[in-house]
Write a structure and sequence with these properties.
By secondary structure, the protein is α+β, with helices and mostly antiparallel strands. It has a two-stranded parallel ribbon with strand order 1-2. The longest helix is centred in the middle third of the chain and has 12 residues. It is globular.
């Protein structure tokens, strides 16, 4: 059995291009900052991004993948 730390209900406030995604109190709630917080500070292995269907969030995620800051897992599986 594997131990996984997850947050499956995360809302994004703004895209990297500063376009609003969801009205929020913090402008810093963008994909990059949330991903960094999950990995670096909280040790979260899985993050469920509620607003990932937004075109602006998709652009941010695609940029992360293109720059090698993240990688897609084959068939959505982890590689533990």
């Amino acid at each position: 059995m594997y131990e996984i730390f997850a947050d499956l209900h995360i809302h994004i406030g703004r895209a990297k291009n500063n376009k609003p995604i969801k009205i929020t109190a913090a402008r810093s709630l963008n994909f990059e900052n949330i991903a960094n917080e999950c990995v670096q500070r909280k040790g979260i292995n899985i993050a469920g991004i509620i607003d990932c269907a937004s075109p602006y969030v998709i652009e941010d995620i695609e940029e992360f993948l293109k720059n090698g800051e993240a990688q897609e897992l084959k068939d959505g599986r982890n590689y533990i």
